[in-house]
Design brief:
Elements (H helix, E strand, L loop, with lengths): L6 E10 L4 E10 L4 E7 L2 E7 L4 E3 L15 H23 L11 E6 L9 E10 L5 E6 L2 E3 L3 E3 L3 E2 L5 E9 L6 E7 L7 E6 L14 H27 L4
Antiparallel strand pairs: 1-2, 2-3, 3-4, 4-5, 6-7, 7-12, 8-9, 8-13, 10-12, 11-12, 13-14
Length: 243
């Protein structure tokens, strides 16, 4: 993807008080193939348009009361995408001489959302940041085999330095010995980045029985100290002819 093939609009709104400062963000991005419209608050994605399923999505956890953007939010997103592509077409001539910018991801991490318990549902997270342009492609494997069930990825989220962050997730059930990997592909990479996660048996602290070893050493130390003190007293008194 060349630089001219991607157009991204960012709208930041800052509001605050004496105690807090919040950042509200509205992202509209497009190419001739892909597109994304997203609303966020304080680096949390609140809403985005899924143009493949033709619906709006609230990605917050179920225990968080979502902020509604209204029934017409998806239709507005479609209009934003159309306008973005129109502007992209007009800007092609002006940007044709610009060299493409390609920043490879500066950080890729894989971790679990919750503490691992064997045979208990969990989520693997592949966190990719520091890349430009967006998006990245993330794929998953389990024991060397490609797996797609229960996988998802959020829209690219802009960083303050002009790069992007994306988070991919995979629902899984940990089983002892399983090996998972997330593979990241991007225009700035000469080869894919791969991060591995091994499912190990959770360690259970052993209950140790009381040991006599330290007590014996302490007892011997006290006895030797007393004997040494007694011997020293004897020789001091003898030197003074007290005995």
């Amino acid at each position: 993807m060349k630089m001219k093939d991607l157009l991204l609009f960012l709208s930041y709104v800052l509001w605050g008080s004496a105690d807090a400062l919040h950042t509200d963000i509205h992202v509209v991005g497009c190419s001739y193939i892909h597109g994304g419209v997203m609303f966020g608050l304080d680096r949390e994605e609140l809403w985005y348009a899924d143009f493949e399923k033709q619906m709006d999505v609230y990605p917050q956890p179920p225990f968080v009361q979502p902020i509604s953007f209204g029934d017409g939010a998806y239709k507005i997103a479609v209009a934003n995408l159309y306008g973005c592509r129109q502007f992209l077409q007009l800007s092609e001539t002006a940007m044709k001489d610009f060299p493409p910018r390609r920043d490879a991801p500066s950080g890729v991490m894989i971790y679990t959302r919750n503490e691992v318990e064997l045979r208990a549902k969990n989520t693997l997270v592949c966190h990719v940041t520091g890349f430009y342009p967006a998006p990245v492609k993330v794929s998953w494997t389990k024991n060397g085999q490609i797996t797609t069930g229960g996988s998802s990825i959020n829209n690219p989220y802009p960083n303050k330095n002009g790069t992007f962050t994306q988070i991919a997730r995979l629902q899984f059930i940990p089983q002892q010995g399983d090996v998972y990997s997330c593979t990241v592909e991007h225009l700035g990479l000469t080869k894919p980045l791969i991060k591995i996660y091994n499912v190990d048996t959770p360690e259970t602290p052993e209950k140790h029985k009381p040991s006599l070893g330290p007590a014996v050493f302490c007892g011997l130390g006290v006895i030797i100290g007393v004997l040494c003190a007694a011997g020293g007293t004897f020789f001091i008194l003898k030197a003074n002819k007290c005995i």
